[in-house]
Amino acid sequence: MKSTKSLLLAAVTVLSLSLSFFTGLAFSAFPVNNPRDEDYTALYRLYNAQTQRHLYTTGCDEKNNLAQSGGYVYEGIAGYIATRQTRRTVPLYRLLLGSGEHFYTANEAEMRSLTQNPTNRLEATIGYVAASQIKNTQPLYRLVGAKGHFYTTDAQERNTYLQSSVNKDEGIAGYVWTSGMNPCDGIKPPVAGNFPVIYAQADFQGPAQAVERDFPGNRDWEGSPHRIRSIRVPQGWYLVLYDKRNYKGKSYNLNADWTPQPGDYWNGRIKSIKVYQGTPPKQPR
Questions:
Q1: What is the spatial distance between Cα 86 and Cα 177, in angstroms, rounded to a whole number?
Q2: Helix (H, G, I), strand (E, B) or coil at 168
Q3: pLDDT value of position 194
Q4: Mean pLDDT, range 178-183, rounded to an integer
Q5: How many CB atoms lie within 10 A of CB 51?
Q6: In Å, how far are 41, 69, 129, 210 from 188, measured between CA atoms?
């Protein structure tokens, strides 16, 4: 009897250890995301009274140019979309249709079907939305009327729009976040004081982003909407700047704060950054 009990206890122990091992593997294979406001950016909504169409953009230059001289009125923030793809998110595509309408979809099959028509073209992936509702998200409703499609997170606005028999409900385009960065309206994310920080304007002004690891480059800092125009470098940190993505092209070593002087080659040309802490690199890598 004692022998049977011992064998049973050993089997239970082995099973428990096995479950712990495989559970650990599951968690390491699918890491939990730790979202921050810097991971989400505003999706701006504008309206053209002449065409009776809306346009949505994350780009400051486009937003400002259209509002100042493009015949559009800025209506505010439609929601916040992710700036990088993570688990449970999908790309949000923006297309320009032959009718002149800007169309938005997170359905890749729909995007590919539409772009088979040569009069329609894909303009960009403007960000990422959640494929299903998760924490801190809300539905982005997709509706269509005589003049084209309309997107809103406001359920009351959606219901009012649908009171017209001409307008139809096309479901949910995706789920957008309820908070994030608002770079175009002068609000910048919190800056970590212990890391290098890149700024969109000279003299450490404007929207900013902490750079705590190598930065291979992305479109948000290549003119859509920002360019790197000054950098804070805390003591003990060393950067290698490159004028092309993925650490290619001309390079420049930096171990102190930098803001451009007249004629500075690097003003607005930095595309990627190698980040070091401690011993500076002998040669750019």
A1: 14
A2: strand
A3: 66
A4: 87
A5: 14
A6: 10, 25, 21, 11
Distance, CA of 161 to chain centre: 29
Question: Nearest Cα to 212, choosing from 198, 229, 228, 230?
Answer: 198
Residue 124 and residue 94 in contact, taking contact as beta carbons nearer than 8 Å: yes
Region of 138 (left: φ > 0; alpha: ψ -120 to 50; beta: rest) is beta
Work out whether strand 272-277 and strand 137-145 pair parallel, antiparallel, or are unpaired.
Answer: unpaired
**Residue 278: φ, ψ to 5°:** 105, -115
How does residue 190 score in pLDDT terms, banded at 50, 70 and 90? Answer: very low
Alpha carbon distance 262, 152 (integer Å): 45
pLDDT score, position 9: 47
User: What is the Cβ-side half-sphere exposure of residue 158, based on CA atoms within 13 angstroms?
Assistant: 16
Question: Where exactly are the structural domains of the chain?
Answer: 37-177, 189-277
Task: Report residue 17's pLDDT band, with 50, 70 and 90 as the boundaries.
Answer: very low
Q: Does domain 189-277 have CATH number 2.60.20.10?
A: yes
Higher pLDDT, 2 or 245: 245
Decide if 56 contacts 44 (C-beta within 8 A): yes
Query: Rounded to an integer, what distance in angstroms lies between the CA atom of residue 176 and that of residue 139?
Result: 6
The whole-number pLDDT of residue 201 equals 81
